[in-house]
Write a structure and sequence with these properties.
The complex is a heterodimer. By secondary structure, chain A is α+β, with helices and mostly antiparallel strands. Chain A has two domains: 1-30; 33-176, Sandwich (Jelly Rolls). Chain A has one helix at 2-29, and strands spanning 35-40, 45-46, 53-56, 61-64, 70-77, 84-94, 100-108, 116-122, 129-142, 149-157, 166-176. In chain A, the strands form three sheets. A five-stranded antiparallel beta sheet of chain A has the order 2-5-10-7-8, with no helix packed on it. Chain B starts with a helix and ends in a 16-residue tail after the last strand. In chain B, the strands form three sheets. A five-stranded antiparallel beta sheet of chain B has the order 2-5-10-7-8, with no helix packed on it. Chain B has a four-stranded antiparallel beta sheet with strand order 1-11-6-9, with no helix packed on it. Chain B has one helix spanning 2-27, and strands spanning 41-46, 51-52, 60-61, 68-69, 74-81, 88-98, 103-110, 113-119, 125-138, 149-156, 160-170. By secondary structure, chain B is mainly β. The chains are: A alpha+beta, B mainly beta. Chain A binds chain B through residues 44-45, 47-50, 72, 74-76, 78, 80-82, 106, 108-112, 115, 142-151, 153, 178-179, and chain B through 33-36, 40-46, 48-52, 57-67, 79, 81-82, 95, 127-128, 163-164, 166, 168, 185. Chain A: Keywords: Signal. Chain A: Residues 1-25 form the signal peptide. Chain A: It comes from Marinicella pacifica.
């Protein structure tokens, strides 16, 4: 009888251990239930056709080389309905103390009044090199493509910086699948 | 005893019927727009993120509203779209402002063939307006060749803005099971 109980216990433990192993394996492959959408600034479209911008061939990062104080470059984001935006990671090069660049997700219904920032990550200035920043939303944003368009805006401000002191490299949207 | 059995059988049948209805309801297109519980998926794009087909175009935009316009009165923006093979494209909508005798319009193409196109044609709407239509286009399974889906937004005339577009589609797993009606949110 004791042997039977021991065998049953062993079997139970094996099943439970197997279940945990399978769950952990799934989480690892999906990074704890999250996944990422990477958006390169290289593919962004300038807000004005007159904007001059250049590519750093070594890093594949983009910098604004025109005379404007501010400039923005936009990429459309196509994300699944019902999924959640959890956060935004921004990779950049910043060697200017005063200026900065930013990656921002904008949700728009086609009007200025109906548009807002979902999340914005700034390069913060004077990193003197390549770095990245991450911002997590306090409340995850549920994607609704039926009412809104979503874009990634790469933004740069500073009239005095050298062109290539402020480079926009890549943004990574952190997402969770919906129900 | 027989009465109890009959009532029990009737109850079971009613439960089965209600379950069946629930399954059908899930398969029907929901008139309401929210996500979840509906089979429709949407792809939305802002004009601010689209590319001009001709580098010679000049344009201005507003990244917040997503709208773009050309002072020269001529602009064409294009974008390639990923829609899964086997889907059904069911609606096309373009957003813009039309404050002159000119127009803004859209052309949706699959493999170079027009699937849908329309223009605002001098509507004189002083706020954001939409143009669009319901369609029923099956995306074939062509895994061996490129099946390019392209959306083009155009402007002709001054005082016109192009703001973006929205495409409604049914993903392949439900594309053949859904009852097609035209009274859903476009």
């Amino acid at each position: 009888m004791k042997i039977k109980h021991t065998r049953l216990c062993m079997l139970g433990l094996t099943v439970i251990a197997g279940w945990f192993a399978s769950v952990n394996a799934g989480e690892k492959s999906f990074d704890n239930g999250r996944y990422y959408l990477r958006v390169g600034a290289l593919g962004a479209s300038p807000e004005l056709s007159s904007y001059q911008h250049s590519l750093d061939p070594a890093t594949r990062c983009v910098y604004h080389s025109g005379s404007e104080a501010t400039a923005s470059y936009v990429v459309n984001l196509h994300m699944p309905d019902g999924h959640k935006i959890i956060g935004l990671n921004y990779d950049f090069y910043d060697s200017d103390a005063a200026g900065y660049t930013a990656a921002k997700i904008i949700r728009s219904d086609g009007t200025i009044a109906g548009s807002s920032y979902v999340v914005a990550v700034l390069s913060q200035g004077s990193y003197f090199g390549y770095s990245s920043e991450y911002e997590e939303l306090l409340t995850p944003h549920i994607i609704d493509n039926s009412r809104y368009q979503y874009v990634m805006q790469f933004y740069r401000i500073n009239p005095t910086a050298q062109d290539d002191d402020l480079q926009m490299c890549q943004a990574r949207v952190v997402l969770e699948p919906g129900p | 005893m027989n009465t109890i059995i009959k009532q029990a059988v009737r109850l079971i049948v009613m439960i089965l019927i209600s379950l069946q209805l629930s399954a059908e309801e899930k398969a029907m297109i929901d008139e309401n727009r929210p996500f979840g519980g509906t089979s429709i998926r949407y792809i939305s794009s802002s004009a601010a993120g689209m590319y001009p087909t001709d580098p010679g175009y000049t344009y201005q935009g507003n990244y917040l509203s997503g709208c773009r316009y050309s002072n020269s009165g001529l602009l064409e923006l294009v974008e390639n779209i990923d829609i899964p093979d086997g889907s059904r494209i069911i609606s096309v909508t373009a957003m813009g402002e039309d404050m002159s005798s000119g127009w803004f319009g859209y052309t949706l193409q699959v493999d170079g063939q027009d699937i849908a196109n329309q223009a605002s044609s001098g509507t004189l709407a002083y706020n954001l307006m939409t143009i669009g239509e319901y369609i029923d286009f099956h995306m074939p399974y062509f895994s061996y060749q490129q099946q390019k889906v392209t959306m083009t937004l155009s402007q002709l005339g001054s005082s016109i803005k192009i703001c973006g577009y929205r495409i409604g589609y049914l993903p392949p797993d439900v594309a053949d099971d859904v009852i097609f009606v035209n009274n859903f949110y476009r």
